[in-house]
Each structure stands twice: as C-alpha cells, then as structure tokens.
Amino acid sequence: MTHRRERAAALAKYGDKPVGTIVYNQSPEDPSTTFLELIVTREKYRRRKVGTRLLQLVEAETALHGAAQLQASVPQEMTDLQWLLAKNGFAFTEVVKNENVLFLRYRKKVKGTKDIAKK
Questions:
Q1: Of 17, 72, 81, 97, which alpha carbon lies 20 to 30 A from 54's?
Q2: 1 pLDDT tier (thresholds 50, 70, 90)
Q3: In the Cβ-directed half-sphere of 29, how many Cα atoms lie within 13 Å?
Q4: Comparing C-alpha atoms, which of 73, 45, 71 is closest to residue 59?
C-alpha cells in the first residue's frame, strides 16, 4: 500500500538572499513521524542558527498536525549535518545501507504544542 505524503518546504532568507532551506514530509495516514528530506544552509551562513531555526519551524508546524517524532537519514560523510541534528536534540538510532551508501538515521521526539509555544 502506497501512502501519499504531504511535502512541505521552508526557506530561510537574509534580506532578499536565500540562505537555507528544509524539505520535509508527513504522511496523512500516519502523521506521527515527519521525515526530513533535505536540510541545506549556505556555507557562509552555517553555525549561525539558520538550520536550528528551520528545524524548530518544522517541529512546531508538524506538532500541530500530530507528529510525535522527526526522522532524518544522513549520508555518513555529511558530518556538519550530523552535528546540527545532534545539537538540536536528535539521537542516532541506526546505520542503513542504501545503494552502497551508508546513511546514519537520527530521530527526535517532538515536544508537545504547549512546550513549543513557550519558545
């Protein structure tokens, strides 16, 4: 059975310049998990909380739609992204091999909407 996923994206801008983006999806049939498909920050703007703010936005938005956890699969060599996820409360869960590429899977429990509103 194939589930249609609801895909969404957010763009971070500095003035008129795009500096980061995040793409994620949540299944309408099982909205408890949100999958992070892409997280990109321009190199010049890394370690300036662009990625953190994008992750916070996704967490808040998907919590409103019933997400209980966020999940990301990161290629082993993308250490900056692994660092960003770990810094933002994601825990490493497993190694997954896909087409001769090793991916590290990370998960984070989504805070309740009341907790997110306090930020």
A1: 97
A2: very low
A3: 5
A4: 71
Rounded to the nearest 10 degrees, how much is the dihedral formed by the CA atoms of 99, 102, 75, 87? 150
Asked if 8 and 34 touch (Cβ cutoff 8 Å), the reply is no
Tell if the pTM clears 0.70, that is, is over it.
yes
Residues 33 and 36: their CA atoms lie apart, in Å, by 10
In which band, very low, low, confident or very high, does the pLDDT at 5 lie, cut at 50, 70 and 90? low
User: Rounded to an integer, what is the distance from CA 18 to the centroid of its chain?
Assistant: 18
When pLDDT is averaged across residues 102-107 and rounded to a whole number, the result is 95
Domains and CATH numbers, the chain: 6-117 (3.40.630.30)
**Two structure tokens written together for 62:** 């998907």
